[in-house]
Batch of 3 targets.
Target 1
Amino acid sequence: MPAPTHVPHTTIQRLPVYLRCLLQAQAARVRVISSGDIAEMCGTNPAQVRKDLSYLGELGTRGIGYDVDDLVGHISEVLGITERRKVALVGFGKLGAALYGYSGFAERGFEFVAIVDVDPAKVGTQTDGITIRHLDDACEVVRASGAEIAIISTPADGAQAAADVVVEAGVKAILNLAPVRLVVPPDVAVRQVCLSTDLQILSFYLAQHDGGER
């Protein structure tokens, strides 16, 4: 089931956070949870939780709360993760290798099916049964793997070329970790993650705090 089209983008951004908290509650064998409990776990407020969940349909019982298992299933369905999603990784440097080794992706239903790099020392080697292929072969490899999502963890100067190849292979969703804006067709979704930008924002808050103390 695709995400309802009327759900605001800001709500979609919060749904994975709610899901993570609900999975924690599920692991603790909590059967029913209130909006206040969810809000406390997620660092928001009950009114925001109720408003966000209201976009997804008639959920929960007034005065009682939400069935945890039902809500986990519903949010997972809205996010499209009830089935495993195949992922291609482009760029197998230190960051790419660390992402590949992170068990949380598999736990959330994401499976790496293709790895691409340009380093001659890596191309042709295997990791967990996946042969690392050269970018020149990426279109064919990614298409054959059935990957729906591509994670780009290349240096900035190689990111656009990587994006062009995975788009040509039919990928419609890209997580871009390179510090550069990608140019893609309108029907391709790109999520930009820039760690240096986030660190600069944190540095701003530290500077504000330091300035207030002086």
Target 2
Amino acid sequence: MKINDLQEKSVRGLRVGEQIRHTLSEILARGDVHDETLAKHMVTVTEVRMSPDLRHATVFIKPLLGKDEEAVLKALRTNTAYLQREVAARIKIKYAAKLKFLADESFDEGSHIDKLLKDPRVARDLEPGAED
């Protein structure tokens, strides 16, 4: 396989992932899913990663303020078939991607790193001339 073919596939995966992210965000924001848990929570779709063949999409989500994350994930997983149908109907691709929902942990990791960097012991080592 040529390098240009690989680049085209990865660009296409990014493009399709972004289309799916926008579509899911719209569906959730409009309240199109008739689910009590999802109706009570604002859910952000932070990223969608596509498999190379575009048949599988890993959807990273974060409920507003990280509240009731497990309940929101359970509700999304319960409504996966509906969401897959809706995405397939709105995005014209050859195959309807199978959706897999996961919590986006990057915000928590970022907060943890920020907290570590603000620790006085670490901050002391980060000051200019600290390596003496």
Target 3
Amino acid sequence: MKPDRLLLDTHILLWALYEPDRVDRHIYEDIYDYNVPVHVSVETLREVVILRHLGKIDSKIDLKRLLIDLDRGGIRILEIKRKHVEALEKLSHPVINGKTHDDPFDRMLMAQAISERLTLVSSDMKFPYYRDLNFDLMRN
């Protein structure tokens, strides 16, 4: 069954745009070929800026280029709304391998996916620990 609307995690977005071979073929088709609305959080854009500044992603991927590539790919930017912050406050803090999962970028994506009823696309191994929150997850 095809998802109605997607929300891409940061690494999936960057892979889909710049390293498409790293994205599962079916997920890539959902992003580009099946006319499924695809979203990226403004929080993801913030994460890209921070990771680039820290030298953790390719320095060629600047915000201006990324915004142009989002437009070209038809990927919509999802702003942070009040209901997202309210959903964020309700998120549990699962303990994974003895550590509480507190990544602020991941948690905002979760809150947005839940409150907007979006399918979150990620390969992050931490998201399945939130399955009790009744959101859709598509794993790469």
